[in-house]
Each structure stands twice: as C-alpha cells, then as structure tokens.
Q: What sequence folds into this?
C-alpha cells in the first residue's frame, strides 16, 4: 500500500511523511476518526513508507524494494498486526490475532474500507462480538522485543484499540509508557473516547475527518458502473463513509421499489383516486413494518429534494437519474405552502407505525392528507 494508492487525507499523509523524512517518528500514533474513511489503509501506507529502502522523489515508497514487495504481500517480518478476534467453540483458551492471521490477510486484501461487522461475519461463530483478549498483550510484547530482521523499525498496527479488554490494555500501558527502541505502534480507532485514558494520553494523534461527497462519488464511480448523478446521490447520503455508501448502493433495488411507490402515491393523490389509493395503502402495509418505516424515511427525503429542485441549483440536489427525471415535472407541486406539512405527515406516519399502529389505516390516512396538501 503506497500513499499514491490513497486519493484522500492528503494533509494527514503530508504530516506522516514529514515525521519519517525528518526522523522524528513517535513511538506510538493514534489514527482516529469515524468508520469507513480509510484509516487502516493510511496506517498500512505509512508503515510501508517507514520500511521502504528507496523513497521516490515525490515522497512515496518505491514499491519495488524488498521491503515494499513484502508489505504488498502482507509478509514483512517486521510488520505485525493486532486485531479483535472471536473465541470459537473449539478453543479452550482465549485466542490471539495470530490464530486468525491467514483470514485477516485475506480480509484486508479484499477490503480497503473495513468495518467490525464485516470482519465479524468472517467467523463461523455468528453474532459474536470480536475483542482483543488478555493473551494478546504478551504476544505483542514478545513480537516487538525481537530484533528487527529487515528494517530499522518493528511496526505494530493495532486495529480498534477500543476493543482491548481492561486487563489487556493495562498490560500494554507499560509498553506505551516505556517503549522499546526502534518500535512503532500505530493504533487505528473508530472510537478513541473508549480507549483507556492512560494509553490515549500517550499517543500522538492523527485525526481524520469524513470523506467529502466528491471523494466518495469518485470512489463509487471507480469501483462500480454508476452514473455520476446516482453516485452523487449515494455519496450525499453516506455522510463521508464509504462503507455506508456501499450499503446504500446494495439497497438500490429496495430504494427503486420505494421510488415506484412514491410515484404511485403522488400520481394517484393528484388524480384523487381513492379506491386505487386504498389498494396502494394495503400494498405498502403488506411489505411489513420495517420496510414501511424505511419508505416514509425515503419519502421525506424525496419531498425535501423536490422542494430544493425548484431553486434550480443542481449542486444542492442529490437525486439519482431516475428521481431527477421524475422531479423535472413533479417538483413544481412541492412549494413553501406544503413542504413542511407533507414532511410532517410522513414523519408522523413513521412514528405511528413504529408504535405498532395499523399500517393499512395509517397509510390510507397519509394518502388522503397528501391529496389535500398537493392541491394547497
């Protein structure tokens, strides 16, 4: 993993590069920020840069020296990983990261943006919460105490230190307080507030922000055959989180069905077809409570987007191509006179359905109120 493989967090990359170039690498670094923004790939790129024997003129690892090749194969003897694991049924004692090292390598090779949920799903024991058990501290101390084989630094990348058990964290505290010579610990956290304060206070922090909509859009289009407007709409909903953007993408089929139901509601309400709206209400209720809730959340968003559409400022709109085509003619019906009331109707419907209300009755009530508000 090279810095050039990362198209985001350029300020953090520059800061990390200067640490190495000026030979002032701290013994322990915390890279923290929300999930799904590429913190772990940044840690890997920095570790490779530290180990690289021949930096390029533009400030990157060369990618061809022995150390770089070993990093790319995830087989560098002076690079270690620590991460949450699960105690399986056949295990008599708490596991350590090395027990799952092959699975871990496969996981990080295929996941640039990592979540604890996706990692947990790789274990045969389902619904378990991965954690870093007490024996891990002894394993880490042993690895870092060994003489480096290839490079100057022994480097440990510890993923999700907030999942350290209290015993494990306390044992590692001494290693952070009294570091071994030429060792570097890089901790990558989604929730730095949950790290043991005595450890957190001794780490040099590199805080990353959510990715911009433009960055998420670019990544989505690089990895998927997406129209730019569709990618922008998904990026806006993801709040800078690539994992959430991918989840939104996987939900596109469900959202497509919601869009069709939205169009039916608006057209039937405009035409005041009560009989057809009763059937619409029954069809929506038949989807089940969870999908009804998601539909009304989607509908509220689409009403807001249609109101904004009237301002003719494309940079403020986050509609996919199908939604945009519909809104071209529909948006004029969403005005300052009814936008807030329509959203209130849909939000109230969500509340009532979440409270175990009768879906058929609630949905028909929504349809009747929509008739009145579209004409206002």
A:
């Amino acid at each position: 993993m090279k810095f050039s493989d990362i198209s985001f967090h350029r300020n953090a990359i520059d800061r990390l590069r200067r640490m190495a170039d000026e030979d002032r690498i701290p013994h322990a670094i915390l890279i923290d920020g929300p999930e799904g923004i590429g913190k772990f790939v940044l840690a890997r790129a920095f570790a490779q840069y530290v180990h690289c024997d021949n930096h390029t003129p533009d400030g990157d690892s060369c990618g061809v020296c022995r150390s770089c090749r070993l990093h790319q194969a995830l087989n560098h003897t002076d690079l270690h990983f620590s991460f949450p694991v699960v105690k399986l049924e056949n295990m008599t004692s708490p596991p350590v990261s090395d027990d799952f090292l092959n699975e871990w390598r496969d996981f990080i090779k295929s996941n640039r943006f990592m979540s604890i949920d996706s990692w947990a799903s790789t274990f045969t024991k389902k619904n378990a919460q991965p954690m870093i058990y007490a024996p891990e501290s002894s394993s880490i101390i042993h690895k870092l105490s060994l003489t480096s084989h290839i490079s100057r630094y022994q480097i440990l990348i510890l993923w999700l230190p907030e999942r350290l058990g209290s015993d494990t964290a306390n044992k590692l505290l001494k290693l952070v307080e009294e570091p071994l010579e030429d060792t570097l610990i890089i901790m990558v956290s989604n929730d730095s507030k949950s790290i043991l304060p005595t450890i957190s206070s001794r780490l040099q922090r590199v805080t990353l922000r959510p990715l911009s909509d433009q960055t998420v859009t670019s990544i989505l289009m690089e990895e998927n055959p997406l129209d730019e407007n569709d990618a922008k709409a998904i990026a806006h909903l993801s709040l800078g989180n690539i994992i959430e953007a991918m989840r939104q993408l996987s939900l596109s089929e469900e959202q497509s069905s919601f869009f069709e139901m939205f169009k039916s509601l608006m057209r039937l309400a405009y035409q005041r077809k009560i009989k057809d709206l009763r059937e619409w209400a029954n069809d929506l209720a038949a989807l089940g409570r969870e999908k009804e809730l998601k539909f009304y959340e989607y509908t509220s968003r689409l009403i807001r987007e249609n109101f904004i559409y009237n301002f003719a400022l494309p940079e403020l709109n986050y509609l996919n191509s199908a939604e945009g085509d519909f809104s071209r003619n529909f948006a004029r019906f969403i005005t300052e006179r009814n936008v807030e009331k329509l959203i209130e109707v849909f939000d109230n419907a969500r509340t009532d359905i979440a409270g175990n209300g009768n879906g058929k009755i609630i949905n028909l009530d929504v349809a009747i109120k929509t008739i009145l508000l579209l004409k206002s």
